[in-house]
């Protein structure tokens, strides 16, 4: 009798604790959203929505300040697109090779190096980019200075590789063996099986990998700050550019007044971007699922 | 089980005891990246008083807002305080530092005039050959908008809001590294931070040194300022550190860091 009461009590306490911790998570997200919206809206109101989002000049500390963030928005978009263009095919084919074609020893070795790559802090990537990539771009392309959008794209694509590879490998390996065996039994060869049966079955997981990669690329501040030049120009492949993230990071510490509120608005724009990208990708994945 | 629990509590007790002993007295300084060498030498020689002084290199503008917000005891600024800041803050000059123009070692130039600096940084002159260098485009390196070094440079050369930078970096050290790696780069940095990896240009014929900064013949200079709140008194430990920095025994150390002490 005593044992049952004791167990019920522990059960109740555990339920309450776990439920409240779960709700706490939601509270955190809600508080962050709310804070961003509340701090970001005033500046957009003062500066004017069109002037803020579509203005092409950002000069927050000059005597007549202007707060147009179009250069940052376009730079972040181009930078993320460029990183995905390079990183996604590389990561995808690498993960297919490791999951399906590689001998066990090579697979273990490469997986541990990918794990190592995932653990390297962004500052180190930025540092290596500054010392190797920037002078390299300067000499290979014969431009006056190597810090540019291209350097940032290259650094970002290397940074998103580990997350794409690891998640893709996981989802490809999670496809039931029966699919592969069935396809081989019907006469398809290994490559046909992998690309026409296994990969489409792992589509959801690979989509998650892409979302993770995009999320990391668009949110990266430290590494790109060291290689991109940080001047608020409209983006060009060899131009010195500033991302949404570096715009906030480089001015936050000493900003005051309207400038500080404008930086919160930039953070809000960034947040909206990430939500839109997530929603879009989820939509695309759902639709492809429905078509089947 | 029992043994483990008592062992854990002993270890935790020791850890707490040791950490509280280490927090005898602490002074937090925050601000200018150009003041790194000076702060490094002062803090090192100040050790042994039981007062723990920390230095955060975040930039002059950021140091001033840190003091205003109460996050730091002493703010470090490599420019004089603005009128608006003087309403709530007090600045104490501890040293004077020259801002030097630096170029890559491969650059043939050795002197630069204020006219040339103004034309180069506003984009009027875009090729090195117009000032006597190689036939190559000029790559302008500067600091971020809150930097004391940038403020000092732009106010003396008269290029405020008009500089066309190729890169805006966040510390004096970064400027030196970037210039040392690019043969066509031109940048400005604190005199106390220069090393052998780059070439220092003389300004209007005057070579930057402690003497030329002291007798004001080297025009491109700015004060190193300890920024403290106007209405709130400094903590005992912070006041001790400030007095030490202004004392006679700190003078040779400040000179060793490459700047001119303000104390007479």
Keywords, separated by commas or semicolons:
heterodimer; A: 292 residues; MetI-like fold; two-stranded antiparallel ribbon; B: D-Maltodextrin-Binding Protein, domain 2; D-Maltodextrin-Binding Protein, domain 2; 10 helices; elongated
Characterise the protein shown here.
The complex is a heterodimer of chains A (292) and B (264). Chain A is mainly α and 292 residues long. Chain A has a two-stranded antiparallel sheet. In chain A, strand 1 and strand 2 form a beta hairpin. In chain A, helix 6 packs antiparallel against helix 9. Chain A is globular, with a radius of gyration of 24 Å. In chain A, 36% of the residues are buried. With 264 residues, chain B is an alpha/beta fold. Chain B has two domains: 134 residues, Periplasmic binding protein-like II (D-Maltodextrin-Binding Protein, domain 2), CATH 3.40.190; 124 residues, 3-Layer(aba) Sandwich (D-Maltodextrin-Binding Protein, domain 2), CATH 3.40.190. Chain B is built from ten helices and eleven strands. In chain B, strands 1, 2, 3, 4, 5, 6, 7, 8, 9, 10 and 11 form an eleven-stranded mixed sheet that branches. Chain B is elongated, with a radius of gyration of 22 Å. Chains A and B meet through helix 5 of A and helix 3, strand 7 and helix 7 of B.
Enter the CATH topology name of the largest domain in chain A: MetI-like fold
Q: If you consult CATH, what is the topology of the largest domain in chain B?
A: D-Maltodextrin-Binding Protein, domain 2
The outline of chain A comes out as globular
**Mean pLDDT score of chain A:** 89
Look at the structure and name the CATH superfamily of the largest domain in chain B: Periplasmic binding protein-like II
